[in-house]
Amino acid sequence: MYTLEPLTPQNCDDWNSIIQQYPNSTAFQGTTWRDALANSFKQLDPVYLLIKQDESVIGGVPAFVFEPMPGVRLWHSMPWNLFGGPQVVDSVQVDTVSLISTIETYLKTASSEKGWCELCWTLSPEDTKKYGDLLTDVGYERTERFTHILKTNGDVDTLWRAYNKRVRGAVRKAQKSGVEVIDTESDADLSTFYDMYLITVKRLGGTPKPRALMKMLLQHGVAKLAIATYQGTIIAGLLYLYFNRTVTLWCEASLSEYLQYRPNNAIFHHIITWACKEGYEWVDFGASPPENEGLIAHKEQYRAQKTDFCSYTKVVSPFKRSLWACSEGMLRKIYTWLQ
Prior knowledge:
Blueprint lengths: L1 E5 L5 H8 L11 H10 L3 E3 L2 E5 L2 E6 L2 E6 L2 E5 L10 E2 L7 H19 L1 E8 L1 H13 L3 E11 L4 H7 L2 H13 L2 E5 L2 H18 L6 H9 L3 E8 L2 E11 L2 E9 L8 H15 L4 E3 L8 H8 L4 E11 L2 H21 L1
Parallel strand pairs: 6-8, 13-14
Antiparallel strand pairs: 1-3, 2-5, 3-4, 4-7, 5-6, 8-15, 9-14, 9-15, 10-11, 11-12, 12-13
Helix pairs in contact: 2-8, 6-9
């Protein structure tokens, strides 16, 4: 009933037209994101597939093969627990059992031929409900996660009144203190933001994304950089993505010595305001570590709703997967140092 066809330069236009007809698609499923990741990470090889039904293209499966070390290859529907999975146009009635069976047959053959040691899907909240049980039925292990999503309804005034009063107070304090928030296209501002971002990620113990990735996303019109300035100094910033119906808050940075002026609250409100004015339906605040109660509380003060989604993992080669598990921490430290 369904067939899969590799995405090539010749049929790439089919992907771009189809993906916007899937209501839950975000910038992370577009070809700009694919190309930006492939150019920024030599270890990531895109393996996108078109889904066909009776010779008509009805959707696609975005995915990357991650090769962190020679001989260890992991197929991920999207890196960093970002949403992947089947992206099918809204007008098509899907036989979910048949579709997952078709994709799983392809993955079983490809993993054997190409030496993929792990298969991992991360599905959006809606697709978790649609496909999740089918994946566990064929041997995938489920990991529960959550993000926070704000429905805009295009009405920033209503959202403002719904904010926790502490958020409204923080935004007012930023304004009264002289904090200004703008979207910038300046390469110098990006460099300043990135230096601040590296400091922030190091403080939080994370792994930074490369500057080249951010720059390419900005240049190709799927991302914006909001910065907060105080007396001419950039004190905070947030790189956010926009596509189809969703704005996604992604890479955030701030100088701790200026947090008293509440620049992050001002930036969040600036982006939410922009999303409403531009007609976006959703603002995705991104996944949070379950133990970071402060971050979770901060997102919920804007009335973003905790929304569950899941990842599904199947280990094909336990030996190769264990090699990566033993080496991952060290290699991430080296990568962070190089950035």
